[in-house]
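in:
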């Protein structure tokens, strides 16, 4: 249950008085999610999600909230943070940083088909283009410097073969980061965690899937578009959890992405390395969460072995070209 902080009705109603959204009709804790406390909040003027931030610092939060505001104002289907009467997107509730965002329709699909993958590919490309004039500069806090810092912390928990794999991949990524191809990659603020549980779908009248929107921007940061795309396909386009690509899903996602923006030559050249980078990022974070949990961590950690398999699969076989 991901309600780490319990908010009483009175407390919530008092906090909501600083918004211009009418009476509190109802609210309910959201069970899923592992990072923050989330509540659905129904008000006279609409349906919203209240988030109390448990992990992120108030210094980082404006980057995420303003990014969502920017994307929403550019027509991207994502939560739109609501300003209070003083114009603030972030305030304090129950001694925690708190924000209210619009509630999107739909539900996550953990069993997506090619049609879902195509909607995600299109949305991702539109998000990339919409982020071009977003001025926030927070780097991806789970990028290369974090991998370098985290690797020695998790090595003691790994077998000899796993340690060799991790060290070798990290060295490859460090070399790549110093090279000419990396320097040529387009980059902006990106989502950086566009997994299946972070996209909601509902249905059009004819029964075909329709994008409700993209949620959970709390791992966003400035990084390359091709890294963000690699993160996305490594979760959406695989055959179960064995790491191999499902060709139909991959073709659907990449085809829809390319229809909005054509990747550059540098991105095409970077693609195999970025697929490995994206696998390394989540192998490392899952190892870290499993072996070095934060104090009071209450949630079952996700399985690092899935991303170890994805990383091995990306190293062992050539992926379909990006362009
Ligand atoms: N704006 C929104 N509209 C509709 N539903 C939402 C919205 N934001 C969050 N949710 C619901 O709340 C759940 C948890 O939200 P979220 O994924 O942001 O939690 P988290 O703890 O921050 O993240 P995570 O566990 O993915 O790192 C989502 O799976 C979704 O069902
Ligand atoms: N998407 C991440 C969790 C952090 O949101 C993972 O599956 O490891």
């Amino acid at each position: 249950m991901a309600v780490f902080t319990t908010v009483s009705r009175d407390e919530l109603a008092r906090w909501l008085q600083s918004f211009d959204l009418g009476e509190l009709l109802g609210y309910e804790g959201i069970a899923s999610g592992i990072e923050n406390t989330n509540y659905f909040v129904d008000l006279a003027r609409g349906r919203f999600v209240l988030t109390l931030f448990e992990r992120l610092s108030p210094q980082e939060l404006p980057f995420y909230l303003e990014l969502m505001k920017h994307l929403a104002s550019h027509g991207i289907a994502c939560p739109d943070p609501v300003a209070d009467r003083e114009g603030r997107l972030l305030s304090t509730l129950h001694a925690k940083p708190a924000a209210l965002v619009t509630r999107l329709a739909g539900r996550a699909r953990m069993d997506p088909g090619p049609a879902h993958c195509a909607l995600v590919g299109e949305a991702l490309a539109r998000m990339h283009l919409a982020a071009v004039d977003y001025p926030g500069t927070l780097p991806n806090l789970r990028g290369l410097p974090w991998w370098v810092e985290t690797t020695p912390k998790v090595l003691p928990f790994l077998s000899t073969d796993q340690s060799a794999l991790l060290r070798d991949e990290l060295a490859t990524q460090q070399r790549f980061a110093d090279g000419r191809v990396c320097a040529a990659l387009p980059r902006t603020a990106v989502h950086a965690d566009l997994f299946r549980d972070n996209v909601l779908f509902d249905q059009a009248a004819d029964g075909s899937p329709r994008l409700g929107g993209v949620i959970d921007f709390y791992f966003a940061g400035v990084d390359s578009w091709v890294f963000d795309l690699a993160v996305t396909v490594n979760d959406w386009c695989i055959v179960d959890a064995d790491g191999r690509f499902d060709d139909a899903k991959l073709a659907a996602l990449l085809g829809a992405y390319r229809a909005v923006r054509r990747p550059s030559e540098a991105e095409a050249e970077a693609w195999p390395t970025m697929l490995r980078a994206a696998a390394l990022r989540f192998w490392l974070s899952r190892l870290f969460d499993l072996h070095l949990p934060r104090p009071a961590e209450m949630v079952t950690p996700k399985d690092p072995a899935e991303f170890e398999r994805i990383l091995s699969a990306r190293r062992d076989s050539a992926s379909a070209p990006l362009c």
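note: The CA atoms of residues 121 and 257 lie 4 Å apart.
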